[in-house]
User: What shape does this take?
Amino acid sequence: DGLIHISDLSWNKKFKHPSEFAKLGDKIDCVVMEIDADNRRISLSAKHLEENPWDAFESVFTIDSVHKGTITSMSDKGATVALPYGLEGFAPKRHLVKEDGTTAKTEEQLDFKISEFNKEARKIVVSHTRIHQEVADEHKKNEKREEKDAIKKVQDNISKNTLGDLESLAKLKKEMEGK
Assistant: This one.
């Protein structure tokens, strides 16, 4: 007999209880991870039968990449989001605000931007708010740039007086006063 720790059941699924993975009496394939002869314990792993898919996920879920996700559950701190390939991400509450100002709800399917990807901790943090927030920020930048360009154009068109111009005007004034 050996023990499979709950974290060694799957690379990407999180089980709350081992009965979600297997039933009593089921035969499962596993890998021996450690033998402790002194305490007569064997540590096993079911997930190590296959390669760590998080190595591949690292290139798919890059920072700032956008993926479709479905909100599966909500808590006080945020929401769990089902992502492609059976992965789950977490969206903090402040990152669930939609463009119209409302908060996303359970079972909604939205685009999410990857904010954080941690392969070792198997953790993905996502944000829906950052998608439309960055579009609005870019729009504001463009407006400011256009405003600066317009001001510069007006300033370039305004004729500037020089000292030579002032001297010519003074001569003209004297000539007019003399006549």
Notes: Strands lie at 3-4, 31-36, 41-45, 66-74, 78-82, 88-92, 109-118, 123-127. The chain has a mean pLDDT of 86. The longest strand covers residues 109-118. Residues 129-157 form the longest helix (29 residues).
